[in-house]
Amino acid sequence: MQHFAELYKTLDQTTKTNEKVDALCQYFLQANELDKIWVLAILCDRKFKSIAKTSELKLWAAQLAEIPQWLFDETYQIVGDLAETISNILPLSKTVIEKPLHVWIDEMVQLKGAEEPLRKEFICNTWLQLDVNQRFVFNKLCTGGFRIGVSQKLVVKALAKAFNITENAFAHRLMGNWDAQHTTFNELLFTQNNSDDLSKPYPFYLAYALDDELNNLGLANNWQAEYKWDGIRSQLIVRNNQIYIWSRGEELVTNKFPELLSLVHNLPNGTVIDGELVGYKNNKILNFNDLQTRITRKNVSKKYLTDVPVAIIAYDLLELDGKDYRQQPLAERRLRLAEIVQAASNDYLKISPTIEFNNWEELTAIRANARQLMAEGLMLKNKTSVYQVGRKKGDWYKWKLEPYTVDAVLIYAQKGHGRRANLYTDYTFAIWNNEGELVPFTKAYSGLTDKELVAVDAWIKQNTREKFGPVRSVNAELVFELGFEGINYSSRHKSGIALRFPRILRWRTDKKKEDADKLSELVKLIEV
């Protein structure tokens, strides 16, 4: 546990990539073999279910610290991190027990589903057996909140440096349906037949946002253009007469889309297709909100299968006849993909149409109408490009449409987390309804500079009207321009609408609350 606590502290206290890579590299070379697989799972965001609710941890910590609950809650609001609050508010351990990380986790796993007295006894005893740094890490295990600025890409880079194996190889081995309880570090990363896992997807290739002039990309005919569909990026895998569907978030979602199971009869074994899973009905792609109402359901009823059927819009071919096809040029992969989709002749599998254009000016005009097709913009791909791993600049670009915008009034604020724990950075915004009232319609958390966050925080503290636990209502004065990608009706919101990907574009210090937009104007966007 101490070794992992030291690693966590190092990763949390530096923003330099090389320092993080070096710390991870040293850990994987020196740590206990049984610990390493758990750390790998934690850093790669594999699900680790908590054995206690947040409310239970807060109650038990307050009792053990012998302080009233209100004082604990006030402290938590100031600190902003539950694990840190508990670590520091409890009495120091008189005797620190040295156990490997995997031993503590094994004990936690055995207590999942146990009655409250057993879980409370274990957690409270553990708190009193660890020093402050170890206790902090243990609390993170309890809450599942490991946010330390380490991506899976960074972990892969460290593994490649430590063991002198290519990043692409490790990236692929970390994909798929593995968990730390049922595999070892060596089995996962070094077993030669690791790729025999039939369900294992390939790492996704991600595009960069286009931030350059189109003419700087060279000749237009060297590039393939297609629409950027608004759905769930997925891989469709058919191997050994079985079908698997993976989301980009490495979630196996096959069972959520039973209509796609028929594709196993139409695609040859050894086929892996990269595409977008979308709502698809009457030969049209549905709004993402329609798809979202379906994927949030635990059980997909016949009604949702009828109202929101799905299809996969195929972008790319990653495996052909059981062989890795990613190193073939895009033009070749696209040709084979078209043949496979045509031969499949299944309504649940469509090929993403390429866009015919002669020059960049023509493509710019085509992009302007992308939203009419339920697309977010365009994708540009060099025809000679291979299918890489992760986000690589140079061959694939996403050219998204400018976001919708709305001017809104700040009415509620709440403190953030982590380094923002002492600042009010989580905001609720309102716009005017037909009765001349400000109605809340969305929240946003990002977009302001550090300097602006400090200024808004100071204003909020001076203009608070009421407090509702951690939330403050403020005088309706500040106006902000918000950007968003889409809008739909919503019965869950008082305003009757919901925005997709809202974020703050700028603080409109030049506007008064009366200048904020009206709800009726946003509703018109839905009806376009």
Please give a structural write-up.
This protein is an alpha+beta fold and 528 residues long. The protein folds into three domains: 2-143, DNA ligase, ATP-dependent, N-terminal domain (DNA ligase i, domain 1); 205-400, D-amino Acid Aminotransferase, Chain A, domain 1; 404-527, Nucleic acid-binding proteins (OB fold (Dihydrolipoamide Acetyltransferase, E2P)), CATH 2.40.50. Helix content is 35%, strand content 24%. It contains 18 helices and 22 strands. The chain has helices spanning 2-13, 17-30, 33-43, 54-65, 69-79, 82-89, 101-110, 116-127, 132-143, 152-163, 167-173, 185-190, 288-295, 302-307, 330-344, 360-367, 450-462, 519-527, and strands at 205-206, 208-209, 223-229, 232-239, 242-247, 271-281, 284-285, 310-320, 323-324, 349-351, 375-382, 390-391, 396-400, 404-415, 424-432, 438-444, 464-468, 471-474, 479-484, 486-489, 497-500, 503-507. Strands 4, 5, 6, 7, 8, 9 and 10 form a seven-stranded mixed beta sheet that branches. Strand 6 and strand 7 form a beta hairpin. The longest helix is centred in the middle third of the chain and has 15 residues, at 330-344. The N and C termini lie far apart (57 Å).
Uncertain regions spanning at least 5 consecutive residues: none
Report the span from N to C terminus: 57 Å
Number of domains: 3
Let me know the number of strands: 22
Tell me about the largest β-sheet: 7 strands, mixed
Mean pLDDT: 89
CATH superfamily of the largest domain: DNA ligase/mRNA capping enzyme
**In terms of quaternary structure, what is this?**
single chain
The CATH top-level class label of the largest domain: Alpha Beta
Rg (CA only): 26 Å
Shape: globular
CATH topology grouping of the largest domain: D-amino Acid Aminotransferase, Chain A, domain 1
State the share of residues found in helices, binned by percent: 25-40%
Derived from helix and strand composition plus strand pairing, the structural class reads: alpha+beta
What is the CATH architecture annotation of the largest domain? Answer: 2-Layer Sandwich
> What is the number of helical segments per DSSP (H or I, 4+ residues)?
18
Strand-residue fraction?
15-25%
